[in-house]
Amino acid sequence: MFTDILNGINSPMNVIKSLVELLRNYDFNANETQDIVNNIIDTTKKIIHISEDVQRFIELEVSDININIDTADVNLLISEAVNKNIDEIKRKNITMKINIAPEVTTIKLDAQKITIVLHNLINNAVKFTNNNGKISINCYPKNNSVIFEVADTGIGIDQEDLKKIYENMEASDCLAISNNNGTIGLLIVKKYIEAHNGNVLVSSVLGKGSTFSFNVPLNIN
């Protein structure tokens, strides 16, 4: 498991090393230098994101999940999660569409943990969506729950891999989830949503995109 996590960190670190060596060994004009610096910043953010996921995973393993339920503004939750990914969204020229049903503009949940969940799902969507693609975030009521969906027009997941994701999430298999998604983010998503008495669902069509969704009960205490 930890070998895969280290590989996830080493890969972007090698990118940074190569970019720094370019800056050291060659003379670039101002625009070229800025592009390289921006690339270093973006890659550093990826390392930070992986490190944060590792820290959260360790916390999940050694202690129970405590959730702090309070009334939250759904638009603010989604906006904060999108903003954490905004640099990569802009770089890939991805169109973001957010739809929040008027009945669920404010709901009760743990705002910090749901923001982390949305951040991880949006991060995955951005990672696997090509340039000029689209990501939609939907929030609406259904069967005494609030449904959150993150849908992308990315590369999609074939049915065998989709089946493995479900099996590994059921088994809380961090290693396999890491292999399929590059981070342990999905396991964290699963644990945080289960702490809200909700569930995580995945649907996908290879070559057309994926939709990750979860529900939060309206009567959660």
Walkthrough of the structure:
By secondary structure, this protein is α+β, with helices and mostly antiparallel strands. The protein has two domains: 2-62, Helix Hairpins, CATH 1.10.287; 70-217, 2-Layer Sandwich (Heat Shock Protein 90). Helices cover 55% and strands 21% of the residues. The protein is built from eight helices and seven strands. The protein has helices at 2-25, 30-62, 74-83, 86-91, 111-127, 159-170, 174-181, 185-195; strands at 70-73, 95-100, 106-109, 134-142, 145-152, 200-205, 209-217. Strands 2-4-5-7-6 form a five-stranded mixed β-sheet. A two-stranded antiparallel ribbon has the order 1-3. A hairpin with a 3-residue loop joins β6 (200-205) and β7. α6 (159-170) runs antiparallel to α7. The protein starts with a helix and ends with a strand. The relative contact order is 0.14. Residues 172-183 have low confidence and may be disordered.
Quick description:
This protein is an alpha+beta fold and 221 residues long. The chain folds into two domains: 2-62, Helix Hairpins (Orthogonal Bundle); 70-217, Histidine kinase-like ATPase, C-terminal domain (Heat Shock Protein 90).
Topology (elements, then pairings):
Layout (H helix, E strand, L loop, with lengths): L1 H24 L4 H33 L7 E4 H10 L2 H6 L3 E6 L5 E4 L1 H17 L6 E9 L2 E8 L6 H12 L3 H8 L3 H11 L4 E6 L3 E9 L4
Parallel strand pairs: 2-4
Antiparallel strand pairs: 1-3, 4-5, 5-7, 6-7
